[in-house]
Amino acid sequence: MISNVKIAVVDDDQLIRDFLVDALMFCVNRDVLSFDSGSTAWDYLQAHEDVDIIFCDVDLPGINGLQLLAKTKKKFPNRKCIVMSGDPATEKSAEELGADTFLAKPFNLKDLFDIVQVFVVEGTRKPIKGRTKPQPSKR
Amino acid sequence: MLRFGSNPPNIREMSEDEVLLSRLELLIIMSKAYLEDCPLGKHRKEAVLRNAQRVAHVSPNWGSYGIQFRSNDESREEMDFGHVFHQRVQLLTLMTKSFVEEYPMGRLRKKALKDNVDRICQAVMFSGQMSGMKFLKVA
Question: Which of A7, A33, A71, B25 is the most buried (most CB within 10 A)?
């Protein structure tokens, strides 16, 4: 489990951004960072090493989500990137750029809980290689 | 790359209604977590309060949102049912604020909270299942 996990949400749609922040904050009982543009998110990510998981929408002002993904994976390969999109055409690009998860809109609460289970409860701060599907919890 | 959310033919941007419904579902999960004695903590309380405020602030005519209600009384007008449902949702927001702000709850208030949650779940066909959310037991 990742203790004291730090999550960042990047989405210019305030409704979705605020919902994600509240849902994730409730799940992990930790503060969740939020940004309304790729540029401000990237400025923060470069200056701080403490972010573990990033939820970013593809359609962002300034640096878009895929550009943010590429930059993040190049400089901080251990950070987990969850790419969100309402455009099916972006899924392949997200995978090619190294996204850890593609979260297709519309998504529901269970999707968020499953992501928390995989990346926070079962996650580590070390890179996970060769993973293609959710693993069952070990007992 | 893992994948969550909608499948390709159904991928699109989320509507406000969908976000609201997800917030309502989150409020139900928050209430159930409290009833199951999951630890709250500072950040969870903040998330609960904000979520309750957001749900309370929106005053939709649920009947016009095309939400599929499940009612045993076939003769009931959908609009009237929508009004009662709306009142139940408003009541739920007040109940969640009560337990977050640590008002004395007691057995009967907890029962009333559980009953209200169950009735909302029945009406909107939420399963409200807490399985797969063991991380809520962690502070």
Answer: A7
